[in-house]
Structure formats: C-alpha cells, structure tokens
Write a structure and sequence with these properties.
Blueprint lengths: L11 H4 L13 E3 L10 H11 L13 H11 L6 E4 L1 H13 L5 E6 L3 H9 L3 E6 L8 H11 L3 E5 L11 H10 L3 E5 L20 E6 L12 E4 L2 H10 L7 H10 L3 H23 L3 E3 L6 E6 L4 H10 L2 E5 L10 E4 L3 H15 L1
Parallel strand pairs: 1-11, 3-4, 3-5, 5-6, 6-7
Antiparallel strand pairs: 2-8, 7-8, 9-10, 10-12, 11-12
This protein binds pyridoxal-5'-phosphate.
The site of pyridoxal-5'-phosphate has 12 residues, from helix 4.
C-alpha cells in the first residue's frame, strides 16, 4: 500500500485518473462555467439574513432537511418523500453511484456529454460503458440498445439539455431509454428550466427514473452548492442510508428554502437569458464558426478556419474566458460560451470577431 518513501498510494484506478479541469482565472468576462451572470434579487439576501438570525449554531442541522424537501416538492408538485437534496447535483450523482453503482456494476454514458457522469461513476468504483451519439450529437437508439444490451448497466445517464452540446433530448428518446434500460435512468436537468420540456413528467412513484436539478445555474446560487433529485420514494430511502449524516448544513437548507420564494424572479432571469441566447446564436451564425442549436444557457461553436485552442487563448488575452472543449473527444476545435449579460455577450462577440479577423 506504500511506495518507496512510505507515501500512501491511492487506489490503482484513482492513480490513473484525471481530475476536473476548469481553470478559475481572474478575467473581466467569465463565460466558462454556465453560472447565472447575475446574483439573486436583493430581497433574497434580506430574507436569508432574517432566517439566519435565529440559527442554532450549536446544534446539528435538521438531518432530514424536511422543510427544504417540502419546499422543493411543492415547487414540482410532489411530496417530500420523492425529493433528495445534496451538496450540488454532483453530490446527488455521487450518492446515486455509491448506492446503485460500485464495484462489479456498470454505468452507461453517451458521449459527448457531461464529463462528471463518467468521472463520478469511476471514483465510486463503477465500470463505465461509453456509447456514442450520432453526428448531430443526438441519441442513436440502436446504439443505446447495443450498449445497454451488452453491458446491463445499473445506472444509465442522460443529460437534457446536454452539456456541452446544448441539445435537448426529445421526449420520445428519453421514453425509449427508460423502456430499454435494465437499471436506473438518471436524467440530469441542470439546465432544465431553459428547455421546452422536462422528464419530470415521466417520473412517478414506481418508474426507475430520477431527474436531477441544481441551484447552481438558473437559481443564481452556484456559491451555495445545492442540488436535488425527484424520484420514487423507495429510491430516496436508499440514498438516505448512504449519504453522510448532516451533510446539508443549516445555512444551505435555509438558503435553498428562501430562494424558492423568488421563483418569478428566477423565471424572469431565465427568459432574459433565453432571449440573449437567441441573439448570441444569431450573431455567431454570421461569423466564420459552426454553431449548434442550444436549449441551455450556453452555446457550443467551432471556429472554421482558426484552431479552437488558439481562439480560446486569444479570447483569454482579451480577458474573455470561455470553456475550451477543443481537445475533448468528438469536439475537436470546439469552444463553449455561457450566456452572460448583454454587455458580457457583446464583449465576447467583439473579441471573437477581432480574433477571427
Ligand atoms: C453545472 C452542471 C451540474 C451542476 O452541478 P452542481 O454540483 O449542482 O453545481 C450538473 N450537471 C450538469 C450537466 C451541469 O452542467
């Protein structure tokens, strides 16, 4: 278990892993991690302050996070027994993998998609079966049937809208995957509020389907680290056995509850971003780049005549940070830009125009 100098060695599979790479650089225009460009409304901070004034700092938080679960359930018209919340939807995904994945089990992903699905599964000791999307990055149901048939995955991940392509999975495709999957289907809807339909409509008390959501994007609360899933009650009970006790601190539980009082403001921010997405996509279409249609708060594009990685660096030199996907499989030369404020989007477009000229 120890190397030559007595340093403990990590598990062999962990030693070979790559970590999560998304540089946090100080720039004027930060459009790389799909956060909301604006904070929650000022009334949110005031309401949260009032809640925190009564906080019992010497006591452990409510382990069941009952009030938070009830509030989230009300938002979606389901009971609290169908809600599981955790530290970011990434911890939701991790708890799913710890509970339903693990050694001797397999998770299926369809690339290109959110890299953390495969990464979290592997960290939990789960084998990962990788299927490929078609040329337009849509799910190919023959490929899905092949991957699920060959690997019998305990967990199948979908992402709608898909990160980093922006594509919304058609409802028929999600229904078909739920039909085909031998185990649990996870639909990651981190960007669900930007999309025209939600798999929440397919979740019920029995279906082996969960839909994950996050406060990080539409709710303007990436700093809080809070996410959740809607799923069947028996699944929520299983997850509650696995997750660490008291994992959700009292401040976060309060923040999560209070945020939901500002739903109209959230929806207004989403509507504004969708409008900006249309404007930015149209402007990109006039440049020397390929653009993919997006149902999320980001757009994937590929410069036609200049190397993507060079464009990324040249944008950074102009203090504009986007996500560099240029070396990701199937996304050669691609960059992903988060929809920011009108001013940020203008600065991005001006910088890109200059770089491509
Ligand atoms: C941003 C994102 C998440 C969010 O993770 P949090 O841990 O809730 O911040 C989850 N899934 C996808 C696809 C994402 O892009």
């Amino acid at each position: 278990m120890t190397g030559a100098r007595g340093r403990p060695r990590p598990r062999d599979d962990v030693a070979l892993m790559e970590g999560y790479h998304s540089p946090q650089v100080d720039v004027a225009v930060r459009l790389n991690t799909n956060e909301s460009p604006v904070p929650p409304p000022p009334a949110f901070a005031a309401a949260l302050d009032a809640e925190l004034a009564d906080l019992a700092w010497h006591r452990y938080p409510d382990r069941a996070a009952a009030d938070l679960r009830r509030a989230i359930g009300e938002l979606h018209g389901v009971g609290p027994e169908r809600v599981f919340a955790a530290n970011g939807s990434n911890e939701v995904l991790q708890t799913l993998c710890l509970t339903y994945g693990g050694p001797g089990r397999t998770a299926a992903v369809f690339e290109p998609t959110y890299a953390l699905h495969a990464h979290i599964a592997r960290v939990c000791g789960t084998d990962v079966a990788v299927g490929e999307r078609d040329e337009g990055f849509a799910l190919d149901l023959d490929e899905v049937a092949r991957v699920l048939g060959d690997n019998e995955p305990a967990v199948t991940f979908l992402c709608s809208p898909n990160n980093p392509t922006g594509l919304v999975e058609p409802e028929a495709a999600v229904r078909a995957v739920v039909e085909l999957a031998p185990g649990l289907v996870v639909v990651d809807e981190a960007y669900g509020q930007f999309a025209p339909w939600s798999a929440l409509a397919l979740a019920d008390d029995d279906a082996p389907l969960v839909v994950t959501r996050t406060y990080s994007k539409t709710w303007s609360m990436a700093a809080a680290r809070l996410g959740y899933l809607i799923g069947p009650p028996w699944l929520v009970e299983d997850l509650d056995k696995v997750v660490l006790p008291y994992h959700l601190d009292s401040v976060k539980q309060a923040a999560g509850r209070v945020a939901l009082r500002f739903r109209d403001e959230m929806e207004a921010r989403v509507a504004g971003l969708v409008e900006e997405r249309g404007r930015l996509s149209a402007a990109l279409a006039d440049l020397e780049v390929d653009v993919w249609p997006s149902g999320a708060n980001f757009v994937l594009f590929r410069p036609r005549s200049v190397d993507g990685a060079d464009v990324w660096q040249a944008l950074l030199d102009r203090s504009v940070l986007v996500r560099n996907c240029a070396s990701w499989p199937r996304l050669e030369g691609c960059l992903r830009v988060t929809i920011g404020t009108t001013e940020e989007n203008d600065r991005f477009l001006a910088a890109l125009q200059e770089v491509l000229a």
